[in-house]
Amino acid sequence: MSQVREVKVRFFPPPEDMCRFFTTFYLVEIATAADLQVSDYLHPEWANLRFHTGELCAETCDGVVVTSAAFAATGPSSRAVRFSVGPIRIWGIGLLPLGWAKYIGAPAVTLANVVTDGFVHPAFAGFGSLARTLFGPEPDCEAELARIVDHFTALGGCKIDDEARIVAVHDALIDPDVHSVTGLVERSGCSQRTMERVCQRAFGFSPKLLLRRQRFMRSLAQFMLDPSLRWIGAIDSHYHDQAQFVRDFREFMGMTPRQYAALDKPILKAIMHERARFAGTPVQTLDRPSGAGSGRRPPIA
Q1: Are 148 and 140 in contact (CB under 8 A)?
Q2: Most exposed among 34, 49, 149, 216, judged by the fewest C-beta atoms under 10 Å?
Q3: Dihedral angle over CA of 82, 84, 90, 92, nearest 10
Q4: 108 near 100, Cβ under 8 Å?
C-alpha cells in the first residue's frame, strides 16, 4: 500500500514576457500516511529551483546527499536523483537553457548533475531572498505565485549572449527528426564549434549527450504515461535495438528498465500526468524554447 495519501499538483505559466526563460512554475503539495517519508526519482531535466516547507532529502547517482531546509537547487541533469519527502509544499521553477543564460552567472556545464543547498552555492545567491520570503504564516497559492513573479520581474532585463543561437539549438534539439549532431548543426544554423560552446554554456552537456537524453526521455515519458505499452512499445524509433536502450537507461537512471518498472512512483506519476494535461508535455526536456503551456492562465484554486 502506498504511503502517499495525496499528491496535489498545479502548473502555472510565467507572464508572457518571461515564458522563454522558464518551463513552468509549479506547486506540489504532498500528504503522507502518518507523516512518513516517501521516495521517488527525478528524471533527467533542465535546471530547477525548489522552495519548500517540510523535509526534503535528495541523493544523486554519485551518492551525494543534500538535505535542504528551504531551498534546493539543481543544475541541468542527465542522471536521475532519488528524493525523499514527508508532508511538504514545494514551489518549483524550471529554468530553460535561455533562462539559465539570463539568471545564472555560471556556465551550465559547471553545475551539470549538481544538487545543492541554494542558500550555500554562490550561483544561486540571487534567489535566497525569494526563498526566505516566499511562504507566509498560512499557505496562500496566489500570494506565493505573485512573489515569484515579482522577484523575477525585479531582477530586470539584460542582454543574453548568444540568445538567438540558444533558441535555435533548443528548437532543433526537441525535434524528434533531429537525431544526429550533423542534423543538429544543419537545423540550428550554427557551426559545430559554436554549437559545442553554446551547449556547454547554456545547456550543460555536449550536443551528442543532449540528443541521447532527448531520445531517452521521449521513451521514458511514453512509458510513464501509458505503462501498458511496456518498454518495447515505448522505445523511441531512433534506438537501434533494445540493448542500446537498456544501456542508456542504466546511464541516465542508474538501474535497468525492469528495476524501474517495478518501483512505486507515487509522486512523479501524478506530476507527469498533470503536466501532460496542462502543458502538452509530461517532462521539461520536451518543452519548446517558448516554455510549456505558453499563453495558458489557469485559475488559482
Answers
A1: no
A2: 34
A3: -10
A4: yes
CA distance 269 to 226: 10
Q: How far apart are CA 106 and CA 111, in angstroms?
A: 8
Reported residue count of the chain is: 301
Q: What is the pLDDT of residues 243-266, one digit of tens each?
A: 999 999 999 999 999 999 999 999
**Residues 21 and 77 grouped into a single domain:** yes
Q: Cα(234)–Cα(256) distance, rounded to whole angstroms? A: 15
The parent domain of residue 135 ranges over 4-159
**Contact in structure between 43 and 80 (CB atoms under 8 Å):** yes
d(CA 217, CA 213): 6
pTM for the structure as a whole: 0.93
Q: What are phi and psi of 212, to 5 degrees?
A: -65, -40
Residues 209 and 167 in one domain: yes
CB 18 within 8 A of CB 63: no
